[in-house]
Amino acid sequence: MPRSVNVVAARHRRKKVMKMAKGYFGRRKNVWTVAKNAVEKGLVYAYRDRKAKKRDFRALWIQRINAGAREHGMSYSQLMGALKKASIDLNRKVLADLAMNHPEAFKSIVDKVK
């Protein structure tokens, strides 16, 4: 009896990977072994950078809040401590947006906690 190989499933799996490799440069887009490695590496980067993106945005928000706070004579840590003490629950994303786009609202918050 001849060996049975599930070609349908194997082709489906390869097609799925080759579709993910669309847009890659050179042999990475059309040679199976090269494309498979490139797609696997790309998925690793995607997983890693979904986590890193959160860290990057938090760092950006902290820089913006710090810049806004220093315009009003406070440091970032002083402002965050005062906000916690005054039990004002605004997250860093909202505070950064206020500091950048609505400076008068941010100033009123800083004045309230001073």
Automatic annotation (TrEMBL):
Keyword Ubl conjugation: no
Pfam family, one: Ribosomal_L20
GO cellular component: ribonucleoprotein complex; ribosome
Alphabetic keyword roster: Ribonucleoprotein, Ribosomal protein, RNA-binding, rRNA-binding
Organism, as annotated: Pontibacter cellulosilyticus
PANTHER family on file: 39S RIBOSOMAL PROTEIN L20
Species lineage: Bacteria, Pseudomonadati, Bacteroidota, Cytophagia, Cytophagales
Protein name, UniProt field: Large ribosomal subunit protein bL20
Purpose of the protein: Binds directly to 23S ribosomal RNA and is necessary for the in vitro assembly process of the 50S ribosomal subunit. It is not involved in the protein synthesizing functions of that subunit.
Family: Belongs to the bacterial ribosomal protein bL20 family.
NCBIfam families (alphabetical): rplT_bact
